[in-house]
């Protein structure tokens, strides 16, 4: 869980920038804003790393989600205009925007074969969120689909030599 990763400790471990997936990591799928406890964590992360070194890599970098961040975290950027994960383009752009080497970026994602693979391909650090935020009452089909997808990914990774 993201909340188990204290930003100051991550900094002590050599992390200089964060690339955060949104769905599952900051909030359940299709939410327009992070959960309140995650918002508190984001405030600590921005205090430690600076707003220019915290980026969101999301499939929905538009609409109410972006508007919320613009008011609550001015200067925090959504990385867009790049090929989607697992291509490393988003992390390369994060490194450019944050002016840090890729090896010092922590990619936080709830998917092994998208965000975590992207981090490995880019030379960044992956942090896999094994228990992502879900809201079966809001989006049961979508949450079930991603739950099954994550389980298939874990099985695939275990079976590959």
Can you describe this structure in just a few lines?
The chain has 161 residues and is an alpha/beta fold. Helices cover 43% and strands 11% of the residues.
End-to-end Cα distance, whole Å, is 27 Å
Could you give the order of strands across the largest sheet? 3-2-1-4-5
By oligomeric state, this entry counts as single chain
Low-pLDDT runs: none
Rg, Å, rounded? 15 Å
Structural class: alpha/beta
InterPro entries: HAD-like_sf (IPR036412), HAD_sf (IPR023214)
Your description of this structure?
- InterPro entries: HAD-like_sf, HAD_sf.
- The protein is 43% helix and 11% strand.
- With 161 residues, it is an alpha/beta fold.
- The chain has one domain (2-159): 3-Layer(aba) Sandwich (Rossmann fold), CATH 3.40.50.
- A five-stranded parallel beta sheet has the order 3-2-1-4-5.
Ordered list of secondary-structure elements with their pairings:
Elements: H1 7-12, E1 17-20, H2 36-49, E2 54-56, H3 64-72, E3 77-78, H4 89-98, E4 105-109, H5 112-122, E5 125-128, H6 140-159
Parallel strand pairs: 1-2, 1-4, 2-3, 4-5
Features:
alpha/beta, 161 residues, 5 strands
């Amino acid at each position: 869980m993201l909340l188990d990763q204290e930003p100051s400790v991550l900094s002590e471990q050599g992390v200089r920038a964060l690339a955060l997936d949104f769905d599952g990591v900051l909030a359940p799928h299709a939410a327009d804003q992070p959960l309140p406890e995650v918002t508190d964590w984001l405030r600590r992360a921005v205090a430690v790393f600076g707003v220019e070194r915290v980026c969101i890599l999301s499939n929905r970098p538009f609409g109410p989600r972006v508007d919320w961040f613009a008011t609550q975290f001015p200067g925090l950027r959504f990385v867009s205009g790049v090929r989607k994960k697992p291509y490393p383009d988003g992390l390369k752009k994060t490194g450019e925007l944050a002016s840090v080497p890729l090896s010092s970026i922590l990619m936080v994602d709830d998917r092994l074969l998208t965000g975590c693979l992207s981090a490995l391909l880019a030379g960044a650090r992956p942090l896999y969120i094994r228990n992502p935020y879900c809201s079966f009452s809001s989006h049961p089909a979508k949450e079930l689909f991603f739950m099954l997808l994550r389980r298939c990914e874990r099985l695939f990774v275990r079976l590959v030599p």
